[in-house]
Amino acid sequence: MKPDNEPVRVVLADDHDMVRSGIKALLGMVGGVDVVAEARNGEELVALVDAAPPDVVMTDISMPVMDGIAAISVIHERHPEVRLLVLSMYDTVDFVKRAVASGACGYLMKDAPPFELEQSIRSVMATGSYFSPAIAHRLLQPAEPTANDELTERQVEILKLIAQGKASKEIAFDLGLSPKTVDVHRARIMERLRLNDIASLTRYAVRKGLVKP
């Protein structure tokens, strides 16, 4: 147990300096909470935690070099005592479940009211978990179908490459197919998912965890 007179040490991770500064300023107004370090990506975050494990890590998901979920997985394996909180703009069940499976014990949204920052830290320190009401509500909803439920294995493979920005010729070369065959698959994917453009396909792939945000 942490002594009552010792502050809760927090490490923040977000690749946007302004966002990180805003969160730090809000936490600075919370008594008994001390932001001891900041990271711009998952790799920096892991290094900071390895050097001096904090009580709580509050991290974004979408970051360069190493994303938040990958960093959570590494930190949870090396430092299981550290509470790992996700602060993200992504509210889909897929993202929440991936974060929890990697070791996160809490999840809240970036558009949450400021008081939730304090509430989330207090809660994970006292009970070991915190999920904002909006996230908890989503987790109680029936599970969404996965990409593998909606598409064939080949279609999922092609969708991943489309979401990575590859053209039909590049995908055809990578998979040993003809560009025409790739175009047919893309049309069938759009038909199955009822999506009409590449941007929508990319958002779907990100939401389902097929590609990194």
UniProtKB/TrEMBL annotation:
Q: Which UniProt keywords apply?
A: DNA-binding, Phosphoprotein
Q: Which residues form the HTH luxR-type domain?
A: 144-209
Q: Which residues form the Response regulatory domain?
A: 9-125
Q: Residues bearing 4-aspartylphosphate? A: 60
Under the heading PROSITE patterns, the entry gives:
HTH_LUXR_1, HTH_LUXR_2, RESPONSE_REGULATORY
GO function terms (MF aspect): DNA binding
Q: Which SUPFAM superfamilies match?
A: C-terminal effector domain of the bipartite response regulators (SSF46894), CheY-like (SSF52172)
Q: A Pfam family for this UniProt protein?
A: GerE
One Gene Ontology biological process? regulation of DNA-templated transcription
Report the protein name in the record.
Response regulator transcription factor
Naturally occurring in which organism (per UniProt): Ramlibacter algicola
Phylogenetic placement of the source organism: Bacteria, Pseudomonadati, Pseudomonadota, Betaproteobacteria, Burkholderiales
